[in-house]
Design goal:
The complex is a heterodimer of chains A (257) and B (281). Chain A is of the alpha/beta class. Chain A contains 8 helices and 10 strands. In chain A, the strands form 2 sheets. In chain A, strands 6-7-8-3-9-10 form a 6-stranded mixed beta sheet. The relative contact order of chain B is 0.15. Classes of the chains: A alpha/beta (257), B mainly alpha (281).
Chain lengths: 257, 281
């Protein structure tokens, strides 16, 4: 098991989220560090996306969320966020370049985009093999293309914390392991903490360092092998294992450290 | 302004002899790019109904001004429209009820109140100019107001264009990039409300929304990126503005509505052409 580097530490304690008198999250505890992929699984309506949104400070919550970046406490980390989907007006003309440039500069993209910035964006897209999408409209991208583009966008500038919300639900089967490989690479190359919400239990198992089963609160926490081999858990929460045969891959927390 | 008029008159078209036409042309040149810019966001964010509510609520703003007994109801109109815009936007976020229905209810209440107040004692006919507008009666004070609005909106778009773009794609994503979602959203509806209030006298309640929506909707069909979307929208808006104004002179029709007819024609043309050529990837 790789040691965490102490660059970015996220600690959630006693988190409660209530929207319109409905309790979405109750007393959630979570701790993750950099150089670690934490996977959050759970049934529909478990509050997984809500949990990510509290980290983004997008919705009101009670409880504590503490960040420690490079030893400094209470500093907001740079967060790279890859949303589940972009439910926007798909016909609207925004190119990939426009979207990424708009997130990087105050200089209005409707006017012009500086040459340096264009090069930088293209170079980053190249790292994720999507440089050919530079001038394509984001509404015309396929699910997989969009996810890779959003991942590339989340990585400029390199964040302290990477949040991925069901990034592979729109990706085809071929692209799945490639996507996970890419995320693993990012973990190896940079000092970042990664939290990934996913339904693809079998797919994420070989890649996640730790796994949390969430259903309004934390039901179970451990290595993927510990959680996914617990039949009672799987039945209780009706977690459908996709691609069960892929479980024959070595799962983290097993015979090798 | 006199320089402008000298140059225009030297072009020797018959309509250019008249000061009111030259004033109207100036108003069109400053107003149409504003509608184009704001329209791109109204269309992107599917706010056409919202901006329609703002436009129609102008009647109530005017009614308020009349009730308060002020000579020129413009300031009451402006303040009322801004407050309404902020309030409706806030309620939309907070209630999460079907915004279409909530908006519809609000709309009906606001407009009816305005008409009831203005029509009391049979006096509505003197307010009918607010329905279809009267760009030919524009005063130099109103032109100055338009120029100020032009500077305001262009500056605003320069500073907040990227934030608005990110917001229109995904609010959580925008927040992750450090954008103050609530303030940017509120800022936008305030600017929209101001422009609507200023333009009501020019183009009227009935058609102001079309001027906001149509050029951007047309541009959406032919543009491939944000820059194109913005500048095609401005180009179409200005072209239709000038064309519609001149046509209304020769046809002797209401200028605002004629301009909208030009916009609508462009939209239909663009729809047919893009369908036919299936241009967009």
């Amino acid at each position: 098991m790789e040691r965490s580097c102490g660059h970015c530490c996220v600690k959630i304690e006693g988190l409660d989220v209530t929207i319109n008198d409905n309790s979405i999250l109750k007393n959630v505890h979570l701790h993750t560090d950099c150089k670690e992929i934490l996977s959050i699984i759970g049934p529909n309506g478990a509050g997984k996306t809500t949990l990510l949104k509290t980290l983004l400070n997008d919705i009101p919550y009670s409880g504590r969320i503490d960040f420690q970046i490079k030893g400094l406490k209470n500093k907001r980390p740079k967060i790279g966020y890859v949303p589940q989907k972009l439910s926007f007006n798909f016909g609207i003309p925004i190119s990939v370049q426009d979207l990424i440039a708009a997130s990087l500069t105050r200089s209005p993209v409707w006017c012009s985009i500086a040459g340096d910035l264009r090069k930088k964006i293209k170079a980053t897209l190249e790292k994720f093999s999507v440089a050919h999408l530079l001038n394509r409209m984001i509404g015309s991208l396929s699910g997989g293309e969009l996810q890779k583009t959003l991942l590339a966008m989340a990585m400029i500038p390199i964040p302290d914390l990477l949040l991925l919300d069901e990034p592979v639900s729109a990706v085809d089967v071929k692209g799945l392991s490639l996507f996970y490989e890419t995320v693993m690479q990012l973990k190896k190359e940079h000092d970042i903490a990664i939290i990934m919400v996913t339904h693809d239990l079998a797919g994420i198992a070989p890649y996640a360092d730790r796994m949390i089963l969430l259903n309004r609160s934390v039901i179970a926490e451990g290595t993927p092998r510990q959680i996914l081999s617990d039949q009672k858990l799987i039945e209780t929460f009706q977690l459908d294992l996709l691609n069960v045969s892929r479980l024959s891959f070595p799962i983290k927390g097993g015979n090798h450290a | 302004m006199h320089e402008f008029y000298r140059h225009i008159t030297s072009l020797h078209f018959s309509w250019m002899q008249y000061d009111f036409m030259k004033n109207a042309l100036l108003a069109v040149l400053f107003a149409t790019p504003l509608f184009a810019l704001l329209g791109t966001m109204v269309v992107s964010n599917r706010m056409a109904f919202f901006s329609d509510v703002l436009g129609h609520s102008a009647l109530t703003g005017i009614a308020l001004g009349v009730m308060l007994g002020v000579g020129d109801p413009f300031w009451a109109l402006l303040i009322f429209t801004v407050i309404l815009a902020v309030a409706v936007n806030y309620f939309k976020r907070v209630t999460q009820a079907s915004s279409d229905t909530t908006l519809g209810g609000f709309f009906a209440m606001v407009v009816a109140t305005g008409v009831v107040v203005l029509s009391r004692n049979g006096g509505f006919s003197k307010y009918s100019m607010y329905l279809i507008g009267d760009i030919l009666a524009i005063s130099s004070k109103e032109i100055n107001l338009l120029i100020a609005a032009f500077i305001l909106v262009t500056g605003y778009w320069y500073l907040f264009g990227n934030s608005l773009l990110l917001l229109s794609v995904n609010p959580s994503l925008a927040r992750s990039r450090g954008i103050k979602v609530f303030w940017v959203e509120t800022g936008f509806v305030i600017v929209l409300a101001i422009i609507v209030a200023i333009s009501i006298r020019l183009v009227g309640v009935l058609i102001i929304n079309s001027l906001l929506v149509l050029p951007a909707a047309t541009s959406r069909l032919i543009a491939r990126n944000t820059s194109g979307y913005t500048f095609y929208s401005i180009g179409i808006s200005v072209f239709c503005g000038i064309g519609g104004l001149i046509a209304s002179y020769y046809w002797n029709t209401a200028s605002g509505a004629t301009i909208v007819l030009f916009c609508a024609f462009m939209y239909i043309l663009a729809t047919i052409i893009t369908r036919f050529f299936n241009r967009k990837a």
